[in-house]
DNA sequence: ACTCAGTAGACTGTAGACGATAGCCAAAAG
DNA sequence: CTTTTGGCTATCGTCTACAGTCTACTGAGT
């Protein structure tokens, strides 16, 4: 056992660098999702390496991973290009996410625990507060936290991992909609909590399916509007 | 237009090596799934490189990718270890695969086309022939092909990609069961074809869910039996 | 038996070099 | 004038070598 005599938390836990490839990965993902790197753009290894102050190797490993997760396309002997999203792919991602989230809700209802219900209620309250204060960023964050909690209570790590991947990509396509939509969906969250609390798997399934379907509809509304404008 | 005057196919089209990391990836995946590399085993980069006759770099990139797909665990500053499957994870994978396959069946029913139905019937016939001839390998292959065809007809690339990943991992845990199970499930395949042909999404969903549930049950039977033996 | 410094093995990252490949463009051939 | 050829450039794919660092083990000393 450690017995340094120091109170916990006083030592700043000198920053562990962690594998460099991880940080490069994070940095690139941030650049892509923030659209600083635009879809279709050619990512030159040496440029990225120079820009980030590292050598080519960590960059290559990060690109490798980004490629398996669908963020960049790796063309042999040409290099990495930021993936270009399409309407079709966006819709497919929404379908899959809806499927995964719905299953998570069902499983969560099967595993309902008092503590878990309370956590969901707390997160819901946080979200509703944020709505009242018109703090869009906080609403979006609370919404993500709520869904993550449901996913966690489903108790299926494989499901959670896939959902996390899909979710992040959806969010990339979808950022503008999420902001307008987040403001109006908290009533459905309450209904879901009731269903989970009463261990009603059918109701949880139905509510989550409707919830995700609304999301998908609002995505399409927006896409159609954008198309009409053009 | 090409006009070499050469009849097609006479030129052997000298093999292009393709990126080395791909071949290393394929080789390692084969070694893992064939259990030549055992779960928990430490994969030393230099050893693999030497054994495969390549340098460390392609090995590292292959390991990177295997790690994102769950085949190996990458512990920082220690290296790569073949992922150790657990009963819990196997069950979670089966749940997720069932979910994805069921959705695929539903979508396929919505997209039913004459040509597609015919392809499914053909594959089904191939499988039944293999059963009659007691060719277990052919049965397993036909079963995989049938499910892949359903997935393809669902017309959702994202879904298909996730399913392919999950499916391969399931198969790793599951190989012995698949062999005994494959022999008895072709009647359900016929039922599924009927449901798809009549565009009955509800029936397709129900049948595929039952089908995957049977699979899961036989997995657990076997796991329980193995536990009882031990 | 326990502690702890030292050491070996392995990973992580850097640097430089070389051949291979795709895309482009100008010059030569028909 | 059109097509083909050849060469040029940027970049990738790979290899080699080396330095830094982490982990786990070992063994002496208490």
From TrEMBL, chains A, B:
Domain HTH gntR-type: 18-85
One example GO MF annotation: DNA binding
Keyword DNA-binding in record: yes
A Pfam family per the record: GntR
Keywords linked to the UniProt accession: DNA-binding, Transcription, Transcription regulation
Superkingdom field: Bacteria
Keyword Transcription regulation: yes
UniProt protein name: Transcriptional regulator, GntR family
Source species of the chain: Actinacidiphila guanduensis
Lineage: Bacteria, Bacillati, Actinomycetota, Actinomycetes, Kitasatosporales
């Amino acid at each position: 056992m450690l017995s340094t005599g120091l109170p916990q938390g006083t030592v700043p836990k000198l920053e562990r660098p962690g594998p460099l490839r991880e940080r490069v990965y994070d940095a690139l993902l941030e650049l892509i999702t923030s659209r600083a790197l635009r879809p279709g753009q050619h990512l030159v290894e040496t440029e990225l390496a120079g820009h980030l102050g590292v050598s080519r190797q960590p960059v290559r490993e990060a690109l490798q991973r980004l490629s398996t997760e669908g963020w960049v396309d790796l063309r042999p002997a040409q290099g990495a290009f930021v993936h270009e999203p399409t309407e079709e792919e966006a819709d497919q991602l929404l379908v899959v996410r809806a499927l995964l989230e719905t299953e998570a809700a069902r499983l969560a209802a099967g595993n309902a625990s008092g503590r878990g219900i309370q956590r969901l209620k707390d997160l819901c309250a946080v979200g509703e507060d944020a709505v009242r204060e018109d703090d869009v960023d906080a609403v979006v964050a609370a919404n993500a936290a709520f869904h993550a909690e449901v996913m966690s209570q489903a108790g299926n790590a494989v499901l959670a991992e896939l959902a996390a991947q899909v979710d992040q990509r959806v969010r990339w396509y979808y950022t503008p909609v999420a902001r307008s939509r987040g403001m109006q969906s908290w009533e459905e969250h309450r209904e879901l909590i009731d269903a989970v609390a009463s261990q009603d798997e059918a109701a949880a399934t139905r509510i989550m399916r409707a919830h995700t379907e609304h999301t998908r509809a609002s995505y399409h509304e927006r896409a159609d509007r954008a198309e009409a404008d053009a």
